[in-house]
Amino acid sequence: MAAGYTVCIGTVGGGLSRTTDGGATWDRIRDPLPSECNVRALAVYPDDPHRVIAGTDVGIYRSDDGATTWDKLDSPMDDLQIWSVAVDPSDSETIFAGTRPNAYRSRDGGKTWDHLEMGLTIPCPVGIPRTTNMIVDPRDNRTVWAGIEVDGVYKSLDGGDSWVHLPDLGPDPFHGDIHGMTLKAGPTTSIYCTSPFGIATSTDEGESWDYHYFPKFNENDTRSYCRGMVIKADDPNVMFVGNGDSIPGFTGAIQRTSDGGQTWESAALPQEPNSVVYWFGTHAAVPNVIAAASLYGYVYLSTDGGDSWQKLKKEFGEIRSVAVMPN
């Protein structure tokens, strides 16, 4: 029985799976998206809730029917790791894909692509950096934000043609190891980034940052590690951060705020995560549905905006991406 929403799970080595009935049954996509590929990035189109794009290690794919069937887009990324995908909310023909390193942009719906030289620090402390997040600013689509692995935040003011490296997020290079990233527009616009240290907030367009550090899981931990984050679609004061003792870690938590980040509490989960909580999915059409996944295959689902959670029976290998859309 359909649940009113679809959850897609992208994995490393296990391709892409989806459920339309709240996790009771799952369909594994096998063609043309290879069933054993790596799917590290998923994004639902802002103007069409049944259209979704997937970034893999064997190219970029798109579905127009709620992740049921897929088409491969011609692109120069067939042999690259795609770590993030973003669709321009004011022009869905414009797509960005963050790769390892740098990024690509299409302005014609994925027919042709421009390689974006971002001026990244290569090598970074962990080698070749990954562009882990890309956001087209909803206030002005000429502004594009990019979060980079151990290289901080980059911003373009001309749609991706040129890029500026914003100030450091903290004194340690790994303060700038950007894992999750989102933007809350309003009278005071906030940009949020997660890293191995916690969640950083900027209210001055990325020129300065304030960090919030979550409690450590164990006395000997060096920090409380954070990965993905999401803002509740119908209430920007409610946010969720994926947390854990390390990467991949032995345990994790879903951290939640209801007051815009002033205070946080860990969600009561029916089973302790087996690794860091890695990524989230939600959608404006079903704003109370929040999907979360641990890196090592647990899927948690809330249908009441994060007040309560269930762990789905199905477990995966390594989960790297999550998407939610209405049926």
- Spell out the helices and strands N to C: EEEEEEEEEEEEEEEEEEEEEEEEEEEE
- What's the total helix number? 0
Helix content: under 10%
Q: What is the quaternary state of this protein?
A: single chain
**Strands in their spatial order, largest beta sheet:** 3-2-1-28
Poorly predicted tracts of residues: none
Task: Based on Cα principal axes, name the global outline.
Answer: globular
Question: What share of residues are in beta strands?
Answer: 35-45%
Biggest sheet descriptor: 4 strands, antiparallel
Cα end-to-end separation:
12 Å
Mean pLDDT score? 97
Estimated radius of gyration: 18 Å
Give the total of beta strands: 28
Structural class: mainly beta
Question: How would you sum up this structure, described in words?
Answer:
- There is one protein chain.
- With 327 residues, this protein is mainly β.
- It is 0% helix and 42% strand.
- The chain has no helices and 28 strands.
- It has strands at residues 5-12, 16-19, 27-28, 39-45, 48-56, 60-63, 71-73, 82-87, 95-99, 103-106, 114-116, 131-136, 144-148, 152-156, 164-165, 180-184, 190-194, 199-202, 210-212, 225-231, 239-244, 252-257, 265-266, 277-281, 290-294, 299-302, 310-311, 318-326.
- The strands form seven sheets. A four-stranded antiparallel β-sheet has the order 3-2-1-28, with no helix packed on it.
- The mean pLDDT is 97.
